[in-house]
Amino acid sequence: MGSGVTELMRILIVSDIHGSLGKVERLARIKRELTVVAGDISRCGSIEEARAVLGELVR
């Protein structure tokens, strides 16, 4: 029952990336406070590919 001020949080929610580093690089430029990755990070399940994708999102 406060001051009437509304605070907004920018949330980026992504899924079905399937190893597409080009798309992830564009998504990584979006200004946000929180990133949620819902799954399907890599094409074939390799940990190296998943690390590369997630590494772009945490920059």
UniProtKB/TrEMBL annotation:
Residues 9-50 form the Calcineurin-like phosphoesterase domain. GO terms for molecular function: hydrolase activity. This is Calcineurin-like phosphoesterase domain-containing protein. InterPro entries: Calcineurin-like_PHP, Metallo-depent_PP-like. Gene3D superfamilies: 3.60.21.10. It comes from the Archaea.
